[in-house]
Amino acid sequence: MNERIIQLINEKKFSILKEELNEAMAVDIAEAFEELDKKNSIILFRLLSKDLAVDVFSYLSGQQRKDIVDAIHETKLNEIIDELYFDDMIDFLEEMPANVVKKILVNATDEERKLINQFLNYPENSAGSLMTIEYVDLKKEMTVKEALEHIKKTGVDKETIYTCYVLNEKRKLEGIVSLRKLVLLEDNLLVEEIMNEDYISCTTLDDQEEVTLLFKKYDLLTVPVVDKEARLVGIITIDDIVDVIDQENTEDFQKMAAMEPNDEEYLYSNVFSLARRRIVWLALLMVTATLTEMIIGRFESTLAAITVLAASIPMLMDTAGNAGAQSSTLIIRGIALGEVELTDYIKVFWKEFRVSSIVGIALASINLIRMLLLGSEASVAFTVSITLLITIMMAKVVGGTLPIVAKKLRLDPAIMAGPLITTIVDVMALLVYFNIAGVLIL
């Protein structure tokens, strides 16, 4: 579909394109925007019908939305905003400049303005900033027949109707009931008789990562969000959680690569912004490499006595760094998925110790044979191989436990990834290497 859209735009066959767009899926049309320049993107958007434009708009990236907002008339913008689901509208407003938000708030009703401001004031990455207010609420005194009629009347503009929420007169959440139950059970049954009072919920201030774990653990499609007085203020749907998972994974990858997290798309990011986010960690890691320089300088006499020792330094440091990065990556991912808890540090230590022993013995044996076959002196080969065994064991244990320490200190475990672990184990590898060489060779 993407190629067809681009072809028709390039050939300026707009009337044919307009007809074909009405048969296309919104998500497929949104993908075509990635291949178009700003001018043709605006042309394509103007060819969309109002309802289709709303759906496509919700799938576009932040930069694409900004381009369209700058180009279209304020009246059409307000029409699109009015039709967006509330949580999609909040996401859009969070990305937009202050002057755009101001225009939209001016045209909103008092109640809408109050709700928008409330949502925009929730902490970033909290359940409150993620939720939508478009849910179906029921009363426990309703019969099944009355509940279904209520859903038909009010559910048209709701984001989901598959799960309904039973509230009392003070809007406190008393239970949930699925549409499936309402459709299958007798009309004269009361909602109170069929609702599920054992439900999973979260609060407005819960972190989005915690909410993601709830969805994963209980296989949920929606989660109700309550305030401190147990009043229902919104719901979070699975489509928003998928976006959170994508965002959190991206953030973790950036931290694991020693970069400051950046929400902007790569191709739309300013080069100075990208450079600034990379320089800080690179500079820090470069400065910490001074430790390795100091260690090598301290053992200069050892290297001068047996120059062949210098040839094995890169191999030892690289292997130790790779071993530590393997362990840290597994533990960081385990923490993110809720598979590893803070109280598991002893289990992690013991497991990594055993794994590192097996890996270390295997690699040290291979290295010993390799060096002897290449003609190295036995004393040098044994020194390098013993160092390799010890540094691999240390690297894996450190790589496995440091992310847990970071989590305990309320830091993101992702910072204890490849670059930082490598720097730490490099220092450890050199210290072990030169001290063993001093005992076995000199």
TrEMBL record:
Species assigned in the record: Alkaliphilus pronyensis
Annotated PROSITE patterns: CBS
Transmembrane spans: 279-297, 303-325, 355-374, 380-405, 417-441
Chief place where the protein resides: membrane
GO terms for MF: magnesium ion transmembrane transporter activity; metal ion binding
A Gene Ontology cellular-component term: plasma membrane
Family annotation (Pfam families): CBS, MgtE, MgtE_N
Membrane topology recorded in Swiss-Prot or TrEMBL: Multi-pass membrane protein
Name of the protein this chain belongs to: Magnesium transporter MgtE
Family: Belongs to the SLC41A transporter family.
Metal-binding found in the keyword field: yes
Compartments (UniProt record): Cell membrane; Membrane
InterPro entries referenced in this protein's UniProt entry, alphabetically: CBS_dom (IPR000644), CBS_dom_sf (IPR046342), Mg_transptr_MgtE_intracell_dom (IPR006668), MgtE_N_sf (IPR038076), MgtE_transporter (IPR006669), SLC41_membr_dom (IPR006667), SLC41_membr_dom_sf (IPR036739)
UniProt function note: Acts as a magnesium transporter.
Highest taxon of the lineage: Bacteria
Keyword annotations from UniProtKB, A to Z: CBS domain, Cell membrane, Magnesium, Membrane, Metal-binding, Transmembrane, Transmembrane helix, Transport
Domain CBS: 195-251
Subunit structure: Homodimer.
